[in-house]
């Protein structure tokens, strides 16, 4: 074990669902609003449609977001909402990461 | 992904959501412009080729707040929803302030009706019971204060919008007074010196007009700035990878 | 502390905070009682027989009833439901929205009333202009009556003015709306002139509508009194459950 009490297990324990950059970006955006349209999420994260869909599916399977589908006239519009679990996971991830970063890396 | 990048993402989302939930951009500017035009139109009877006491101009003036609501809605739909709907986080304090604006306008309108009622009882009926009116405004106009208030909780989203709407409605109320006074007033007004109340009323009127002009100009600038802010926000979005 | 204990503690705190921020218990029941009193008092024969200053006092009491209820409810609330100090409930935006919508409904009722009165005056005046001979039938003491009851005309404005500061929850807003509604109905009736030219058609729909409203108020008042009482008992039970049991030696 290193002298300062650091264990590599702490890094390995990070939530991998949140840790992936694209998913981290998605959760960050969702946490800043109540409900976010697919199109906005796609543009703001810079992901392709297919990529975004696959990541949101993973996040939904983990219970971190929920999909809202409504019809505007005849056009189906997909939006997403972060769940309480998702918010908690994001907060915990931030906390863990901050604890792991060296002093100069913290902001 | 670095912390500043995450912060920027968060801010971008909040800003975009704010445009849909509270800000109005060009609609605010339009409100300012309409407020200025309303003053000019009402102060210059020949500006629009119509007399102040003639019905069409009065009707136009009284429907300006509704016109603004429709234009604002259309503008919001066309200009600030290009990337779909993003609902902002609910803010209880902001909501409270918004409701205070709505109820504040209700109080102003009620005070206005109260003054009208008092004027009618005290002035017109007592002093000129047989004086026939020159051109009485239609009675449905009296329903307008109620109609102005009715849609507010549903169509006024933010405090900025509430302010614009309040100014436009207040202006309509101001312009509604002279036609009533002329229509129901005496045919041969008594020639007497201005009383203190008269001077006060005139000064207040001029101050209000000046205030509206300044407010209108500021709203124009603010609305335009907000719109540019939105355009900058759109430009800052990354291209599809 | 066991899991069940913490759950119970949480529930207790939430119920107490609910009382502090939204519920009113007996204060709401008092609102119901006052609404009942307004109806019964005005339709009672004794009210019609009274004349002079005594009548004025009683009429003023009825008009001021909504404004009397507000400080009374506050007083009652402080006496009965704040024994353990203030505890603010968690903020709930949806609930706040609902409360504000009720206050807005009060504003709409009051403004509709004012508009109707103004329309009535203007159409009456227009009638005089079309038929100048009808000026002789105008009640001569109308301006004098108006001046002596001028303060009544400002009441709708005052009813609304105080609402955002004094109304805590949806239940209270509802009670206040009923009291205010009753208040304006009686104001309208009090200024109804004897021998006023009311068409048969108007009379035909006015009486059933009025009776229907009063029936609605009656039923609502009974329900509110019952609910207020139940809420009060709920609060008593909560206090009792908090009393620490003395250790037996």
Provide a concise account of the structure shown.
The complex is a heterotrimer of chains A (107), B (241) and C (249). With 241 residues, chain B is an all-alpha fold.
- Beta strands of chain B, count: 1
What is the helix fraction of residues of chain B, given as a range? over 70%
| Poorly predicted spans of chain B | none
Q: Which chain pair shows the most residues in contact?
A: B-C, 39 and 40 residues
Oligomer state equals heterotrimer
Radius of gyration of chain C: 23 Å
Q: Specify the number of helices of chain C.
A: 10
| General form of chain B | elongated
List keywords for this structure.
heterotrimer; A: alpha+beta; Arc Repressor Mutant, subunit A; 3 strands; 18% strand; C: 249 residues; mainly alpha; 10 helices
Characterise the protein shown here.
Chain A has one domain: Arc Repressor Mutant, subunit A (Orthogonal Bundle), CATH 1.10.10.10. Helix content of chain A is 54%, strand content 18%. Chain A has six helices and three strands. Chain A has helices at residues 8-12, 16-19, 21-31, 38-45, 49-61, 84-100, and strands at 35-37, 65-72, 75-82. The mean pLDDT of chain A is 84. Chain B is mainly α. Chain B has one domain (11-235). Chain B is built from eight helices and one strand. The model of chain B has no long low-confidence stretch (mean pLDDT 79). By secondary structure, chain C is mainly alpha-helical. Chain C has one domain. Chain C contains ten helices and no strands. Chain C starts with a helix and ends in a 7-residue tail after the last helix. The interface between B and C is large, with 39 and 40 residues. Strand 1 (35-37) of chain A pairs antiparallel with strand 1 (86-87) of chain B, so a sheet runs across the interface.
How do the helices and strands line up, and which of them pair or pack?
The complex is a heterotrimer of chains A (107), B (241) and C (249).
Chain A: H1 8-12, H2 16-19, H3 21-31, E1 35-37, H4 38-45, H5 49-61, E2 65-72, E3 75-82, H6 84-100
Antiparallel strand pairs in A: 1-3, 2-3
Chain B: H1 3-21, H2 26-43, H3 55-79, E1 86-87, H4 92-127, H5 144-149, H6 152-155, H7 159-184, H8 196-235
Helix pairs in contact in B: 2-3, 2-7, 2-8, 3-7, 4-7
Chain C: H1 3-21, H2 26-43, H3 45-49, H4 52-81, H5 93-130, H6 142-148, H7 150-153, H8 155-166, H9 170-190, H10 200-242
Helix pairs in contact in C: 2-4, 2-9, 2-10, 4-8, 4-9, 5-8, 5-9
